[in-house]
Design brief:
This protein is 44% helix and 13% strand. The chain is of the alpha/beta class.
Length: 340
Amino acid sequence: MQRVAVELADALGKRDDLDYQQLVLRSAWKWHHIQCAPWLATTAVRLHKMATKKEMDVVLFSSMVTGALATLIRKKCSSANIKLSAIAHGRDVTLPGIYQTLQVRRTLNALDSVLPVSQATATECEKRGMPPSRIRVTPNGVTLSRYTLGTEKEKTGLQLLSVGRLVKRKGFTWFVDQVMPQLPVHVQYKIAGTGPEQDAIQKAAKLRGLEDRVHLLGRASDEDLAILYRESDLLIMPNLPVSGDMEGFGVVMLEAGASGTPAIAAALEGIRDVITNGVNGQLVPSGDVKKFKEAILNYPKTPEMRAQTRTHTATNFSWPNVAELYVRHLHELHASTFTD
C-alpha cells in the first residue's frame, strides 16, 4: 500500500491538468510503522484546515487505513461540498478483529466513493455496506522504467520465482510440498520474502528431498528483485484461500510482467483481475496440483511471449494510464450527486 501511494502520487504529480497537493508519507519501510501514527494525526489536522478554507474539491485516500481519516473530516467536507474517496486494496477491508468491527464500516460510510483495486475487493466493500453505485474498480499500476526485458542468456533448467510475504495464503509451502515433487529435476524454485511460513517451507523442501532445488532468498532489494524477475522463466502465485486474509491484487505480477515474465497463478480473488490467459500468464484452480504442473511445463517460454507480456502490462497497468483512470473517476465524483 505504501508503494502504491507513493507511485500514484508521483504519477499524478506529473500531470499539468490538476491543482494537486500531496500529503504522502515517504519513509523507509523499517520506520514506516513508527512514523505512521503521528503522520495520520498531523494529516487529519491539515485536511481539516484545508476543508475549512475550501482549498480542495476531492480528497483521495491511499488505502482504507488512511481513509479512516474521512470519519474525522466528513462533516466539514460535506458542508464545503468536498468529496471523499479511498483506494481499497483487499486486506485493509477484510482484516478481522477489532479493526474490522469498529472501523471498516464507519470508514466506508464516511466516503463518497471507494476505488477497489480488483473486483474481489469491490465485492468485499459491497458486503460491508458500500452501495455499488459508489464503487469504481481501478487497478494498481507499475513503474515500467524499473524493469527491463534483458537479453536472452543460456539458463540451467527452468527457473521459477515467487515473491511475497511467507504466509499461508501465498501457498508457497503447499507448492513446495505438492507441486515441486511432480516437476522434472531441472526445475529450480526461488522464493524472495520473509515471514512465519519460512520454517514450514524449509521442512517441506527437506521432507521432499528438494533442498538443492528450492531456494529461500529472504528479503530482496528492489534492484535484486528486478534481476530476479528478468532472469526467471515464470512467476508462480500458488495462493490458497484464507479467511480474512485475501489477495486483493498482486502487484508482483505487474513487476514480473514489466520484466516480460508471465505468471502461473491461482484463479483466486484479486489475482483474476491481473492475468489474461495466454497473454501475460495462466490462471489455474487454486490447490490443483495437476493443473499447476501442466501450466508450468506447457506455457510458451519464448522471446515473443516475454515481449507480449511486457506490452500487455505497459498498456493496461503503467502508472500514467492508471493515473488517467483515477483522474476520470475523481472528476466524475466531483460532479456527482448521490441519492442512495
